[in-house]
Amino acid sequence: MRKVIDILFKRPFFLLTLFLVFAYLPVFLPFFHLKNDLISQNLPTRYVISESLYSGYFPWWNPYINFGIPQYGDMNNGFWNPFMWFVAKTVGYNIWTITYEEMFYILIGGWGIYKVIRELGIEKGIAIVSAFSYMSCGYIVGHLQHFCWITGAGFFPYVFLFLLKINKSPTLKNYILGAIAVFLFVSSTHPGLVIGAAYFFLFTFIAIVVLRKNVTRRFYHPRFLLVNLIFFVLALISSIGVIISDLDVLRHISRGSKPPLSESLLEPTTLQCYLSLLFPLAVTKSSFFVTDISMRNVFIGMASLAGFIFLFQYFNKRILATAAFVMLFFIFLAFSSRLAEYLRL
Predict the structure, then answer these.
(1) Distances in Å between the alpha carbon of 119 and those of 12, 161, 164?
(2) pTM above 0.85, yes or no
(3) pLDDT tens, residue by residue, 42-61
C-alpha cells in the first residue's frame, strides 16, 4: 500500500484522476445522470451543433430556440470552445459525452490549481490537497448543472498560472501559452465569470505591487506595467472572435425594462446579516434581518473561521491589510444598495 501511495504521489495527475472518479462516482454510474439546465439547455444546443456538422452544415444558426438564434453569440454554450468542436465533430453529443466532458473540465481545473500552487513555491503535498479542494468545492458541486460555469472553472487556473509565469519570466512561450489560456477561458464560459475574473486579477495586480518588497518579489518584474500591458493586448487579440460575436448579438437582446431603484433596494444583504458569518442564522424566520431569507446567509463555517484566526496570527500586517481590503470591497458590493438607501434617507 505504501508503494502505491508513493507511485501516486510521484504522479499527481493520476492521483487527481483517481480522486475525480471517487469524488464523482455517482455521476459515472449508469443510473445517475447530470440534470436540469445541462440537459434542457446545454445538451440540446450541442446536439444541434454536432448534427449540423454531421450533415455538412456549419452551425451558425439554431432554428429550434426562440424561432431561431445565432449560435455563435450564445453566451451560455461556449460556441468557440475548441473542446466542444472536437467532441461535436468526432463522437457527437449525448448524455454520456457531455458528462465526461464536464468531468474533464473539473480534472484539468484541479491540475491547473496544482500547477499554480507549485508555481507559488508551495510544497507538493499542499498543492495536491489544494487541487482536491478545488475539484470538490461547493462552487463546482453546486454548478454541475450549469455547464458554462464548470468550463470556466476548468480553464481559469491556467490564466492565473501564466500570469504568474509571465511576470516571473516574460518569454515568447509564456505569452503565447497565456494568450491561448485566456482564449480557452473566454470562449468556453459565461461573461459573468469573465467579469468575476477581471475583479480577481485587478486585486492580484494590486497585491503584487503592494507586497513587491517581500511576498510577491518574484512576480514583480522591473517592467511590470509593460509586461502586463503586452499580455492584456495579446489576450484581447486571442479573444477577438468571441468579443465580436458577443457584441454582435448583445444589441439584439432585451430583457425588458430595468427595475426601478426602489425595487432593486428592497432585498439586499443587510449589515445585521453578517452575524451569520459565525452561525447559520439564515435558516431562521425573523424580521430582524430586514431582507429576504435567501440574502441572509454569509456563513463561512468553523474551518474558515480557524483559517482567519491563523491568518491574523501568523501573517504580516501588509498581507493582512491587502486581504482585508479585498474582503471589504466585496462586502461593500454585497450591501452597497442598502447603504445607498440609508444615505438617501
Answers:
(1) 15, 7, 8
(2) no
(3) 888 899 999 998 888 898 88
